[in-house]
Structures are given as structure tokens and as C-alpha cells.
Design goal:
single chain; 284 residues; alpha/beta; four-stranded mixed beta sheet; globular; disordered C terminus
Amino acid sequence: MAGGFARRMWPLTASTPKQLLPLSDGYLILDLIVDGLLDVDLEEIMISVNARFSADFRKWAESRGLGLRIIEEGATREEEKPGAVAALASIVESQPRDDYLVVAGDNISSIDYSDLIDYMRERGSPIVAIYDVGSPELAKRYGVVSVGPDWRILSLVEKPENPPSTLVSTAIYAMPWEALSSVREYLSYGAQRDALGHFISWLASREPVYGFRFSGYWFDVGSLDEYARVRELFERGLIRRPRHISPARRARAGQWAIPRRLTFINIGSRGVPSRWRIREGGRL
């Protein structure tokens, strides 16, 4: 799922989708996400994107030699986006009955997707990948889960003021068809269309949904600070390099090239023309 416009990360994402921001040595954020999926024998990988950046994603897939499918949502600006849940429902309508992995397009993690899929098949139920952020203050930023002794999810609350735990949903899901296809029923009630956690919370109130806790690392690249942190850790070799995807030799024309040292100044989204780029050594 990569259909958002990442307004919190302007100006970097004013003319480049967040998933295609660079890390180092020619690698982009999306390289790490898709590389993890390539560890698994999946029938197909689909990426849901907005119309504004659709061409960028297609060029990225071509440059990596990947035969995946780009699904265009149609939105060209923030105000037009359908929301992650509605976008998921639109995809489901045209897909065959099968089990699916659903992964948010800003998740960089060390999760083993094979273990996640095996756990879904063992339980025969939807599975949410969860991670312990270790701090109630950090947990406030995410969808926080409470689980029973068998790891059944008892509740999932988006960005609570008083988190009941430090376990958070990573927006990585393994879904049997029956559970996934119920997203259309969920939307028929006029429910929240954006955060996937709202759909999962509704689903957990109707049927067993289990948590799959993994260790290692997990980053939700939703802010400039978190992006800078991920770049630093990747450059230091503390985040695994892709094993299946080779990086581009150089950045494409029109793609951001970010200096090694990052200094972010919030100048407001209204003052950033969409044609701007930042080059090595450039200035705002």
C-alpha cells in the first residue's frame, strides 16, 4: 500500500513518493520492503499507488527488473485520496479468492514473512505483525494492541492517549480470503476509510485475529526524523541490505538526491513549489 502523499515529510515528498526516497548506494526505501517479500514464494506482488506518482513507481519497477503489478488509485492530490482501507477494498474486488499479505509501504523491518504466513495457516485466522516499541510515549504514535494469553488480539486502538501496552501494529497483515474480503462489508457501514487499523479493530470484534510478535528492527518511515535515522542506520550496515534487488547506478532525472548530512527546516507545505528538487550541496 503506497498511495499516500506523505505531507508530513514535505518538502522531500512534494515531488517524489516517500517509498522512492533514497537511502544510500543507489538503494531506495521501497527496495528494502519488496526485497523482504521476495524471500517468499508469492504468486504476485501488487503495489497500490496514486495517479500522481504512478509513472515513478513504474520506472522504479522497470529499473529493478521486477515483474510486479502497479495498481493506480486515481488520486492526484491529498484531498482526492480514497484512504488505505478504501484502496484495499477496491483491489480486493478484482482479485481471486486466496490468502494475501498486506503491507504498508513505509515499513522497514526484519520480519520473516515466511514465519508470518506459516502462523496464519496454523491459526487459520487473520494475523497482525506486532512489535514492542518499549515505551508508552512512543506507542502513542501508533495503533496499540492488547492481546490475550494465546496472542488473540483483544483490542487495537489508533494513537491512544493512554496506551494499554507498548505492543503496536506494524500495518503488516497476513489475511485469509474470508477475512480480507469482509473489508467491503466494513465500509458499507460508513466506517473510517483511512487507517487500516480501524478495519482490523472491527474485524477483531467479529472473529479471532491473532498477533505475531517479531523482534529485530521495525521503522515506520512517517517523518523526516525517522527517515534520517533509517538512512544513518542503513549506511552503518545496521539495516539489512537487499539480497534480491540491485540498486540503480545513479539517481534518475527528477529524483531527489539527499546530502549525506541532513538538516531539516520546517518552512510549511504551502511555500514549497512542486517543481523543487534538492541536489547534493544544494540549498533551499
